[in-house]
Write a structure and sequence with these properties.
single chain, 267 residues, alpha/beta, Rossmann fold, 6-stranded parallel β-sheet, 3-stranded antiparallel β-sheet, 7 helices, 9 strands, globular, binds 6-phosphogluconic acid
Length: 267
């Protein structure tokens, strides 16, 4: 297990969500104090959205300059604007509507009723990522010779499926195999709804920190496989590796198959 992977169990779903919210607020504050702005990639799913609700409830949220937080999405369902299944809508209801974000810094994936087809939604998001990356590149003296395809992600949140999917990258499917692209369209998702837009694993792994959040006994096997060094094609979560840090933030039930030697307890 490489040194920059940390596995932390929490006593319950609620403690996991509240603690992850506290971590996120602290991380945003630390990055803003260093860089003036911070960037987080949000995830759908029960823990991801519950975490945003906890952020919205936390008094510490008042310390964050929300107008200088850039929000991206790891994936979204390709559904109409007002569909309750849209990760953007769930994130807005949980947090984005409750803190003073700068709308220009909130980057939602296109809903199905705003574009001609899935391909256009994928192309639009890739272009938006590239535009943000170029702007950062032009403002950064220490930048590489060429702008990257995506901007700097300080924290990238990932939920975890029982099949060890992350974002909308599912075992053995085309999305997890996709190379050389920042964003991919997903058809026939095993998890409904069937059509989605997702960041690719390459893009996910460009993040400074990846936080995989999972709760429930139905995730224990996926966590165990994800930490056992399995192939990312069969176990997408095993391919997630942040540049500086990868955190597995779990409740006790999801952590049940993690070897004790790998565990770092916080409670
Ligand atoms: C989605 C999510 C997906 C989710 C996991 C975990 O759009 O569905 O991005 O990757 O995070 O499936 O979801 P649960 O925590 O609800 O099981």
């Amino acid at each position: 297990m490489s040194a920059n992977v940390r596995i932390t169990p929490h006593p319950s779903f609620d403690v996991l969500a509240a603690t992850t919210a506290a971590r996120l607020i602290t991380r945003l504050l630390d990055v803003q104090s260093e860089r003036g702005e911070a960037t987080v990639v949000l995830t759908g799913g029960s823990v991801g959205i519950a975490t945003l609700r906890e952020v919205a409830k936390s008094p510490a949220r008042l310390a964050v300059d929300w107008g200088k937080v850039n929000f991206w999405f790891g994936d979204d369902r390709f559904v109409p604007t007002d569909s309750p299944e849209r990760n953007y809508g769930q994130a807005a209801e949980a947090l984005l509507n409750h803190v003073p974000v700068d709308p220009a810094r909130v980057h939602a994936m296109a809903p199905s009723d705003s574009v001609a087809d899935l391909g256009e939604a994928v192309a639009l998001y890739a272009a938006e990522l590239a535009c943000a990356a170029r702007t950062e590149w032009e403002n950064d003296d220490a930048s590489p010779d060429e702008p990257p395809a995506v901007p700097r992600f300080d924290v990238l949140l990932l939920g975890l499926g029982p099949d060890a999917h992350i974002a909308s990258l599912f075992p053995e499917m085309a999305g997890i195999r996709t190379k050389g692209a920042a964003v991919v369209g997903v058809l026939n998702s095993p998890k409904p709804p069937p059509v989605r837009v997702s960041l690719t694993l390459e893009t996910i792994n460009s993040a400074q920190e990846i936080w995989i959040v999972a709760a429930g006994a139905d995730k224990a096997a996926a966590v165990g496989l994800g930490l056992a060094g399995a192939s990312e094609i069969q176990v997408p979560a095993s391919g997630a590796r942040g540049v500086n840090k990868t955190m597995w933030l779990l409740d006790e039930a999801a952590a049940a198959k993690v070897p004790a030697a790998l565990m770092r307890r916080e409670n």
